[in-house]
Amino acid sequence: MLGKVIRYFISFYGVSKGEAIGFIVLIPVLFIVISAPLWFKYIYPVREVPTEEYLKEFQEWVAASEASIEEKEEPTVTATNESGGILHRFDPNSASTEELTDLGFKPWIAERIVKYRSAGGSFKDAQDLQKIYGISLDHLEMIGPFVDIPPMEEALQNDSKYEFSEDDTDYDKLTSEEVVAVKDLNNAVAEELVFIRGIGSVLSERIIKYRDLLGGYVSFNQVKEVYGLNPELVDELSRYFMVDTSGVEYLEVNLLKSEELRKHPYIDYNLSNAIEQYRIQHGHYNNFDDLRAIKILDDSTFQKILPYLKFN
To answer: What mean pLDDT comes out for the span 250-270?
Structure first.
């Protein structure tokens, strides 16, 4: 068939065989070139510019989709605590012991939270719950999304304890900082001390034991002498406790024997013996100056024991 076409071109147009073949090949090439724009338009159609109405409908669809996603991600729908109960949003500044227990807090931790609030403490956010000794980071991470604490101004307005007008000058002083009821460190019990972040049962017992050995703290600087307490913990402790010296136990230097005197942390074996021997040789001490006559009593030790001495 192709040979007949070539012979036709040669006899009709008077061309060579090569020219006839070239002409036959050129025809389909020209057809492809001419029809290419039509095929291109079919394969790659021209995109129409979206109208304002279309853009508006698209934006509404996106907003509706996002709202649907947020609703599905509502934590109270799917999350459960370790005991299998369903978690829900709660305010640690008002939740009861029973509610906290239902949320997965151990009963003794729930009681600590309530006692902490009763002592004047409050929580600004979920991370503030770390102040309560015993709460694990895993539990805190789980309940964190459910902590719902209203803004300070709203909380104050909802609290009957706070009544003020816009003209009340104290209103401007109210901040989101927690209000702390300061207590006397000399009367504190271990259960109160463990509320302080970083102070566990061991350190709380050390603080109390050292206090009892001293006969009571006369200065907050003495707390730094407790083994294991760093300056940061002492500063944190000072936010919640103060030192009332009215109940300090005094050392009757004219009555106590050396065995009793050396029980005090500031008086060692040699000093207790010297105090007793000097009293035996020279009679009762009348004042602090008489005590300074003891040669081995250096000024540093004298200043430390001075608040604990009593002359009768």
So the answer is: 94
